[in-house]
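Human: If only I could read backbone structure tokens as easily as an amino acid sequence. Take your time, and here it is.
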Amino acid sequence: MDQSRRSSHTNLASCVVATIFLISIGIVTVFVFFFLFKPKDPKIAVNAVKFPAFSVSNGTVDFTFSQSVALKNPNRDAFTHYDSSLRLVYSGVQLGVLFIPAGHIDAGRTQFMTATFDVEKFPLPATPDGVTALSEGVGSVGPTLEIESKIKLVGRVRVLHFLTHRVESRVSCSVVIEASNGSVLGFHC
């Protein structure tokens, strides 16, 4: 009888030790997942904004818009993007949308993209809301247009090679251009 009693205590102690060990592994796994491999949103940096073609006639503006961006994946695993877009807005009115094709950015890498598209003619407002005069130092620049560029990048990051996490990154840039010739006077993101 003494032997079976000792055997049951040994079995109980083994189960307790195994349970504590499994709980410890679970806590360490959660710590590693949420603190070391925490998914981060991709970084979007606008490098250049250009208007290769620009014309103003009879109170309407017609132009081609080109924007170069750098997309950085700060994660420890690959980032796959989909459902991403570039939108142009002027005085609250959307001028155009360019959908960014699905793609893949490796861990810690930067991918460079250039988006170029034609914007249909649109009328300039009759009031000075959208057309202003800028003054710089000695002289002044003629009427200007302020156009807003909005980039949205949506995708998934794989964590520890088997878990996925949805991430989203946005950037909005204000671009000031000279209304007479389309030269970029400045942009701020």
About this structure: The helical segments are 2-36. The mean pLDDT is 82.
